[in-house]
Write a structure and sequence with these properties.
The protein is an alpha/beta fold. It has one domain (2-167): Dihydrofolate Reductase, subunit A, CATH 3.40.430.10. Helices cover 26% and strands 27% of the residues.
């Protein structure tokens, strides 16, 4: 089963309405890289892949050098990421090669995975910045989340972990 991961603002958004993640501090990047190492596989959507490819040189290099399997989900058969990435044309295809993986993506893929009961756990890192309005990580309607009590402490952010129950 999959673990869904997102950084969120204090008011629960993963990005501003225009898709910008400028409120996420750079010093959180090592937390994400450590999670990727722990899981050994990262699944992301095409838009997340493109966002990462536009990061500054050093964070991008750190990500590219991770010794993990990186899977990008895109239904576009003409999409070809650079070397070191695997393309899956559906979430189901991604699960065939990575049944236990970390997913870091946007609302569309997150909602699909949750509604099709592919997610076992959600990890949210909350930064102490409110942005007023933006893009939510997923639609909570019909999803049963049970807080996990013992979660790691990280400096400067709140960590929330949930086990995902049945979609109601």
């Amino acid at each position: 089963m999959l673990t869904l991961y997102n950084v969120i603002s204090a008011d629960g958004f993963i990005a501003r309405k225009d898709g910008s993640e400028d409120f996420i501090p750079d010093n959180l990047w090592p937390n994400f890289l450590n999670l990727c190492r722990k899981y050994g596989v990262l699944i992301m959507g095409r838009k997340t892949y493109e966002t990462i490819q536009n990061y500054e040189e050093e964070p991008l290099r750190q990500f590219e050098e991770l010794p993990i399997k990186k899977i990008v989900i895109s239904d576009n058969r003409d999409f070809h990421p650079k070397e070191g990435y695997i393309v899956a044309h559906s979430p189901e295809d991604a699960l065939v090669s990575a049944p236990d993986a970390l997913v870091s993506s946007g609302t569309t893929l997150n909602d699909y995975l949750l509604k099709h009961r592919m997610v076992e756990k959600i990890i949210l890192h909350e930064v102490p910045i409110s942005i007023g309005e933006g893009i939510k990580p997923f639609d909570r309607e019909g999803i049963s989340l049970t807080p996990i009590n013992k979660v790691p402490k990280l400096k400067g952010i709140r960590v929330y972990e949930y086990s995902v129950g049945k979609v109601v």
